[in-house]
Amino acid sequence: MQDVKFYLENEAVTVEIGQKLAKVARPPLTLYLTGDLGAGKTTLSRGLIQALGHQGAVKSPTYTLVEPYELPGVEVYHFDLYRLSDPEELEFMGIRDYFSENSLCIVEWPDRGEGLLPPADLHLHLAYSGNGRELNVHAGSAAGQAVIEHLSQ
Ligand code: ADP
Ligand code: MG
Fold first, then answer.
1. What is the pLDDT of residues 115-153, one digit of tens each?
2. N or C end of the chain: smaller count of CB under 10 Å?
3. Which helix (H) or strand (E) holds 124?
4. What is the CATH number of domain 4-140?
5. Quick one: DSSP state of residue 95?
6. Mutation choice for ligand 1 from 5, 10, 11, CB with most ligand atoms inside 8 A
């Protein structure tokens, strides 16, 4: 499976990638979002979650670890594990139950929960590049690969 790269010139293009993902991402699906602080993980998540039907703001659930969205035909769980200090917190919150047949899970800072999260169908990595961002998309499963194929069309 080949990774796909995109250059995202500005914030609007990051949002657009999220919108494109919304067209093809269907549960069950697990997305990992990695990259430095300010790389655009939440911006991309916002594009995706709003395009799936959420009206209103999308903020990183930095203190609550997870923000649920009940959207038409899909349950979305947006995780931000940046502040996770003790991986046991994930056990306490019943992390496994979020990853179900009906859910689309978006995980920022998945490395903080290593060993306790299911593997990613899609791993999106954002990096600062000039005035914009470079996005690398890696498929971890056949479902993820199918999404990549649609994204690059
Ligand atoms: P993260 O969740 O990775 O910490 P955020 O999405 O919260 O990052 O913040 C990203 C910041 O970078 C925002 O200020 C946003 O406007 C900006 N940004 C997002 N995408 C781009 C881009 N492609 N080019 C330039 N700036 C971007
Ligand atoms: Mg964030």
1. 999 999 999 999 999 999 999 999 999 999 999 998 887
2. C
3. strand 122-129
4. 3.40.50.300
5. H
6. 11
